[in-house]
What does this fold into?
Amino acid sequence: MQQSLFDLHPGHGLASSRESVSDCLKDEILESLLALASVKGIGFKTLQTMFDSGFLWQVWDWSLSEIRQHWSQILGNYKPELARAIHDDKCRLREIGHEELNALRREDVFFSPLGHDSYPPAFRRLPEPPRWIFGRGQLEVLHSTSVVGMVGTRNPSEQGKNLAYRCATELVRRNIVVLSGLARGIDQQAHLGAVHYYGQSIGILGHGIRSSYTKAQQAILSRLLENEGAVLSEYLPSERPSRGRFLRRNELLAAMSRTLIPVECPSLKSGTGATIRRAMKLNTPVVGILPAGATEQSLIASEANLSSLGHPVFTVMGDKSDRFWDHLRSIVQDHDWEPDPRPRQERLFRNIETQLLAASKRVELDPAAIDRLAERLKCKLARRDGG
It folds into this structure.
């Protein structure tokens, strides 16, 4: 392939697809990305520019002189040692890329480049969308138009933690997808509230998908994936976290959210404040919540901060919560807000089925035993419900 699928996008110089990226080309892009990322001296920004121009996957067909020419034209800062390293080590680099691609498949990591049908459409809102994403879980959930982002301080009050958890449970009862960043504090409480009620949740990372997780993050991540959620990152799988990457993560959160709920934000100079500012630039509605009878100073400060920026703050977990739900309905009008237990029931049943199938390898289960279990469950549920 000698022609790039991408042109510079008018206005901000970004790559935009002239045609859909096929599954075949998607794999070629991933293999090339992983191969060239292994070359010392080629960084994340250079890989993005290589992707924008088609250099990333076309370079394998070029001679050394062609690599030099295209490098100078496309990448600007020509580095002869890198051009020669690519040319002289093509076979080894492609083998590295192929092995890494297969390793990611074994780990159930998906890859979605800009231009492919699987790419999350919400990210196209960004002035500079991710050129690709890596992730685990259900790709389909990333296309949901009913995603609500929840963010907040890493050091929340007890009232704040309870508020995030309760709000998330009420959102998933209405089949909203809860989005957050898996960070300690409010983020984790939002994810927990969603997954404990078998709702869908999405986590966006400020590091690679393979990077280390705390025990709390790993536990949440397991539940999130069990319940048809997803975790994603635009960074290469083994990239470590950094402040800049977390700030970029906040931008992706703001882009994917139909509305953003900062649960506890005592300071606008925080990461939560940065997410609010990014949401405002993207015209993502920001909505504050406050528990009835709030006494924590950090929650009161959060209300003042949001009000100072012109965002509404609603009392919830009390008699006035209807105003909050009415406001959300006015924002996400294409969603059925009536509580529907069926999707969460199906996830619960699938989890039970998975556990039974796993247990059947150790304990013999005949059809009659399954029937007896079903009858016992029916009786217990009837007694619980007063039947």
Remarks:
- Residues 1-18 have pLDDT under 50 and may be disordered.
- The CA atoms of residues 172 and 199 lie 5 Å apart.
- The chain is about 50% helix and 15% strand.
